[in-house]
Write a structure and sequence with these properties.
This protein is 74% helix and 0% strand. 40% of the residues are buried.
Length: 318
């Protein structure tokens, strides 16, 4: 994976061409998926797909002029900093709310990409085109509203666009949730293995404290180094790392703190109750912010957490 700042001018244009082709195809998929139930909204996304296709043709023309006919294959997953996009075929059946949410994030991300790319390009013609496309993406929301007014009945229009809220979720909620899940689940096994091996509160607390802080440091650095945030708008990587690391430590400390109680069995009972609360909170956050169905979120988190919990107990009692 390559840093955005390390891309050459040729690679920037090749990546822009790939992004515009991908966006056009995604909008076309949206239109196809909505055609039966929401034909007017499908027209909206076809028009947006045509606009992205016109951007791609302008980029192709400039690329051939500057670098010839061979266009290197550079994809979003090859460059650090892009939002991961879930394949459309995995999101069936499509709903209006879901596709508009994804479209808003796509527009915000593409605008940031062109703004950064224009500043990074030394050639005047390339910089001008990228700057023009950045300005067009900046006006894309207004264009979408005009297309929506043309194709979509008034009662189906969204009155507010929540692109920045989506990016806030990516910047704060997502790393925090990843940390909370890791801290709450991964520390269960060593904590309860120590608990049932020693049958003593204080040594168990020390194991839980060490596991929570160690996991927090590890997850914090992993998140900070995974994405520099230059294109996604996810903000400072160190801020995300701090959020992720802190929530990892909190998740681990939640069921370690009860072992400050000297009565071992009372501490264990309270810690077990805390575990259930933690797993329930994680499932709710995944459902509320990450659009994961509640049953699926509960199964993934609660069942997985209980398996780790049981593993720790069995190891400690062996």
């Amino acid at each position: 994976m390559k840093n955005f700042s390390d891309l050459s001018e040729q690679e920037l244009l090749a990546l822009a061409i790939t992004l515009e082709e991908e966006d056009s195809r995604i909008y076309s998929e949206f239109a196809h998926g909505l055609q039966d139930n929401y034909p007017d909204t499908a027209k909206l996304f076809r028009a947006m797909a045509d606009e992205e296709s016109s951007h791609r043709h302008r980029l192709l023309t400039l690329f051939r002029t500057r670098f010839g006919d061979h266009i290197p294959l550079i994809r979003r997953q090859d460059v650090r900093g892009f939002v991961e996009r879930k394949p459309v075929w995995m999101s069936r059946p499509l709903g209006i709310d879901k596709v508009r949410e994804q479209a808003e994030v796509m527009e915000a991300e593409t605008k940031r990409f062109y703004m950064r790319a224009a500043l990074q390009s030394p050639d005047a013609s390339v910089r001008q085109l990228l700057g023009d496309l950045a300005a067009e993406e900046r006006r894309h929301e207004a264009k979408a509203e005009r297309l929506e007014a043309k194709y979509v009945p008034h009662d189906l229009r969204e009155r507010e666009h929540e692109a920045e809220r989506r990016l806030f979720v990516l910047q704060i909620v997502q790393p925090g949730l990843a940390g909370l899940m890791d801290g709450s689940v991964s520390t269960l096994a060593p904590l309860f293995a120590a608990a049932f091996a020693t049958r003593a509160s204080w040594p168990t607390f020390l194991v839980g404290l060490a596991a929570a802080i160690g996991a927090g440091i590890s997850m914090g650095f992993a998140e900070a180094l995974s994405d520099n945030g230059s294109l996604t708008g996810r903000g400072s990587p160190w801020l995300r790392g701090l959020v992720c690391g802190a929530m990892t430590a909190v998740g681990g400390l939640g069921h370690a703190l009860p072992f400050l109680i000297s009565d071992f069995w009372m501490a264990t009972t309270i810690a077990g109750a805390v575990v259930l609360v933690e797993l329930g909170v994680i499932a709710w956050v995944r459902n509320h912010y990450m659009d994961t169905p509640l049953i699926s979120a509960a199964f993934q988190v609660v069942v997985g957490g209980l398996l780790v919990f049981a593993t720790g107990i069995l190891i400690g009692m062996s």
